[in-house]
Amino acid sequence: MTYSKLASASAIVLAATTLSTTAKADDLTLCWAAWDPANALVELSKEFEAESGHTMNFEFVPWPNFADRMLNELNSGGKLCDLLIGDSQWIGGGAENGHYVQLNEFFDAESISMDDFAPATVYAYSTWPKGTPNYYALPAMGDANGWFYRKDWFDDPEIQAAYKDATGQDLREPESQKELLQIAQFFQGREIDGKTVYGAAIFTERGSEGITMGVTGALYPWGFKYENTPGSYDMEGAVNSPEAVEALEFYKEFYKTATPPGYTNSYMGESLDAFKSGQVAMAMNWFAFFPGLYADPNTGGDKIDFFVNPPQNVAGSTLGGQGISVVSYSEKQDAALEYIKWFAQPAVQAKWWELGGYSAHNSVLQDPGFVDSAPFAGDFLLAMNDVQDFWQEPAYAELLLAMQKRIHDYVVADQGTAQEALDLLIEDWTETFQDEGKL
Amino acid sequence: MSSFSVTEPSKRSKWVAGTLVITYALITMIPLVWILLTGFKSPADAISYPPKVVFDPTLEGYVNLFTTRTRQTQEFLNANPPQNWADEIVRQYDMVIVGPSKFGERFMNSVIIGFGSTFLSIFLGTLAAYAFSRFKVPLKDDLLFFILSTRMMPPVAVAIPIFLMFRNLGLSDTHLGMILLYTGVNISLAVWLLKGFIDEIPREYEEAALIDGYTRFQAFYKVVLPQAATGIASTAIFCLIFAWNEYAFAVLLTSATAQTAPPFIPTIIGVGGLDWPAVAAGATIFLIPVMIFTILMRKHLLRGITFGAVRK
Amino acid sequence: MSDRTVDRVAQATPVRVARKIRGLSDRAIAWIFISPTIFLLLAINIFPLIWTIQLSFTNFKANRIGREVKDVGFRNYERILTDSDTWLNMQATAHFLFWTIFFQVLIGFTLAWLLNKKFRGNDLWTTIIVLPMMLSPAVVGNFWKFLYQPQIGLFNYIVSWFTGKDPSSFEMLGSVQLAPWAIVIVDTWMWTPFVMLICLAGLRSIPDYIYEAAEVDRASKLRQFFTITIPMVLPFLMLAVLFRGIENFKMFDLVVQLTGGGPGSTTELTSINLKREAFEKWRTGYASAYAIILFVTVFGLASIYVKALNKVKQR
């Protein structure tokens, strides 16, 4: 190419890209988990490609390996991802170890306001240290752990009558954790359509984060707290409070008496399998999967309905979801920031929800039509009001693995008592915080 | 052996032995056959209970293995009729094919890293094996044992410093890094096996060639190499199979660009739920080359798996 | 031999005239040929090993680059060796090691002995039996997880067909009692052919005349088996055990795919624990110490074993 041609070509590009701040078309790679919403994001991003001239590539890693693979990638200073939709708990490490670019200046310059996003999601997905106005991500995907059930079974008059006989109550969406267990136990081992079915599929996975995400679904409604005073790391009496012990015993009882056989190491995929193969009456899973479940030809449509994680002493749901961050090792940070700017627009956020992603933008969530836009939309809003997250410390992986071990040892492998499990957990966590110099 | 020999087993004992061995062989094949069958099931058939032995075969697993799909609205589906049979298959889930999956790339990574490291191992290994076989090398036995002992470290243990080293050198998740690493692991096998093969080639051939005016190098590649061809080929296949099957290093040191198939296949998931037919399809495609190689290599199998310690 | 030069020169070879040749000296060639290999091994094996030793005395964490690295002396070793969980992992490894070797030797030897009856088609069946061991343990292990599913997997249905037990009444991977056996079963399925092949080589190495002599002496078949077959095959068998021992001590891929160490920590073999420490918790210093302990253990045990093996061989 001659010099003059080059000059004119870049002039055309400059003139054409009114939206983009850089003249260069980049190949961007966005990393996320491989699941339904990721496919929706691919679809959504086509508009960005058309508008900006950049090309989007995607690297989606399945959940059981997502944390391992991506944290490994960040820790090895890898340049694979320009944009990363990282799990909420990574924010501490991402910020402190310099994996993520701090976005405050960019937000100010582009007048993107965090006030436009649901406060729970900003707190959980974007800020470090927690609650301070230091942003390392833009809320990308709101999520929480919820429940779905076989509506056709719940509506069956025979089953309803049998439930009334057995418990003296009406069969309905449970309004407390104990009612949830009672319903699950009722279905456990029952014959429906010539098949033996079971109560509910819950998370029991050992390897990554499964059982912790499941058990906190019981711990939070019982009033579990990580610390007596937030930020103090004093866990004695909080982590092993009588309520926490009761909740943990409850989860074990649930596992022992109301789950299908063999679901001893199960997480998102297994829960979906159990439900789709007609083995269970109910199952827990992330809201992210609900659009796909609703669309399933066999067990979706009018055979399925959804409810929020039931309260016990208080309302509480386990937080999922992610924010989108720019990786500091990327050589294409400008283009990556452009993507975030594009993604934050209300119109794009509305389309995002339409395609099956859970927008955290107020303009979407507060839209009067939102609640009726999907059978699980109302439940999603309810859940997001009372979400809690795991530790988001830089040492979160150590903290999580300790909890995985102690809970799995107690719930699945029958070792010790709930009290002992939580006492040991405090010991593990104390050791980690001491290593970190925080205690 | 003469058929009149007292060591020749009786007809009856042959028959009993045959029956027992064949029974074992059939049982041992069940998991492999099941992988093959599952690849042709629909996801619903794959997770049905009790398991289905008879089912309607479909290529859904293979389609899911090679494609990325997204769910679409009814309007979109109505407006865009399916373009081919594969599209047809995914339409039943209200989805459309939007592009290829990562499987092809991962499979190619396995091929590149497998062949690259095999070539390097064989190249270096042949040279070293020849030197160990023909020359007086000081501390020969110690060096040979040292080469072997490097295989005793658990890969996870080796991976810790390698991870740091690769990070500093910018080799993380690169083909070059993995090729060098697998060569480092394979070279012990290559040297040991090839030394055995070269030992078996009579020295007289080279010596005669030397007298004829060949240099050592010429004698090496004109006389020894052709003679060692079978040995080199079988050693190469063993190196290839190792690199092909390796999992621990691959899962710890690669994330995408250079990720091979073994860490990838177990993580194939469908859109919601584990896609066992796709996993089985991926496994089938991945395992078949090794099966073919195994059948080709059956004469040298023993030697390969024992580092040449047992030669038959 | 097709090469004519070779044929021609092979006939008349006054040995050791080879010395005075043009070009490099043999000594130089030897070093040129060997040094790349040695260099690669130093770079990929020895240097990392030394680095690991050095790291094992620090509190280094590979995911915290800015953090100050402190020398902690033998603290990591102390912590590992006094941690009761370490010993549970060692026990799980020992259980796995012992029973896999036990079953593989038992079944592998039996198969070899049967194959040595030389019935028709035994080459074909040998090749079929050998297939599992050549396949990727990660890929196959992952699929075994599917086979072990109590509801949808094949394994429980087959067991139930033979025993009449309800297929969903037991969980191979999920129960604390059965999981250690579930991994033993898969490893045995995979690696029995290895022991079988080596035993077969051993059996075939026994010359017929020894049996013929025994026959002349009117030794019973049973006696022949214990006085000829077993002792002659023993060195081969011990070699097979050495290989399986080292391999299974390092075991990672198969078990990670099958149980990931669960339920609880029942099948958490040392390699799996090491992976958690090094690549999930990122306690690099601690994990390095753990790696060194493992290496010393396997190296020590293997050396003792090799001595014993050599004694048997010399007999």
UniProtKB/TrEMBL annotation, chain A:
> Any coiled-coil ranges, and where?
none
Where in the cell? Periplasm
**Which SUPFAM superfamilies does the UniProt entry name for this protein?**
Periplasmic binding protein-like II
Cleavable signal peptide: 1-25
Q: What keywords tag this UniProt record?
A: Signal, Transport
InterPro entries cross-referenced by the UniProt entry: Bact_solute-bd_prot1, SBP
Membrane-crossing ranges are: none
Gene3D superfamilies per record: Periplasmic binding protein-like II (3.40.190.10)
- Cellular component GO terms, alphabetically? periplasmic space
Give the similarity note: Belongs to the bacterial solute-binding protein 1 family.
Put simply, this protein is called Putative ABC transporter-binding protein
Give the organism's phylogenetic lineage. Bacteria, Pseudomonadati, Pseudomonadota, Alphaproteobacteria, Rhodobacterales
Automatic annotation (TrEMBL), chain B:
Q: Which residues cross the membrane?
A: 15-37, 111-132, 144-166, 178-198, 219-244, 276-296
A single Gene Ontology biological process assigned to it is: transmembrane transport
What is one GO cellular-component annotation here?
plasma membrane
InterPro entries in the record, alphabetically? BP-dep_ABC_trans_perm (IPR050901), MetI-like (IPR000515), MetI-like_sf (IPR035906)
Record localization: Cell membrane
Q: How does it sit in the membrane?
A: Multi-pass membrane protein
Taking the record's annotation, the residue ranges forming a coiled coil are: none
Which keywords does this Swiss-Prot/TrEMBL entry list?
Answer: Cell membrane, Membrane, Transmembrane, Transmembrane helix, Transport
Top-level taxonomic group: Bacteria
Query: Nuclease: present as a keyword of the record?
Result: no
Where the record annotates domain ABC transmembrane type-1, the positions are: 107-297
Which family is this protein grouped under? Belongs to the binding-protein-dependent transport system permease family.
Report the protein name in the record: Trehalose transport system permease protein SugB
Automatic annotation (TrEMBL), chain C:
Any idea where this protein resides?
Cell membrane
Keyword annotations from UniProtKB, A to Z:
Membrane, Transmembrane, Transmembrane helix, Transport
* GO-annotated cellular components: plasma membrane
Q: Does the keyword DNA repair apply?
A: no
Its name, as the record gives it, is Trehalose transport system permease protein SugA
The record's family statement is: Belongs to the binding-protein-dependent transport system permease family.
Lineage, uppermost ranks: Bacteria, Pseudomonadati, Pseudomonadota, Alphaproteobacteria, Rhodobacterales
InterPro entries in the record? MalF_N, MetI-like, MetI-like_sf, Sugar_ABC_transporter
How does the UniProt record describe the way this protein sits in the membrane? Answer: Multi-pass membrane protein
Broad class of where this protein is predominantly found: membrane
Membrane-crossing residue ranges in chain numbering: 28-51, 96-115, 124-144, 178-203, 224-246, 287-306
ABC transmembrane type-1 domain boundaries: 90-305
| BP-aspect Gene Ontology terms | transmembrane transport
Q: Does the keyword Mitochondrion apply?
A: no
Quote the gene name from the UniProt entry: sugA_2
| Species in which this protein is naturally found | Ruegeria meonggei
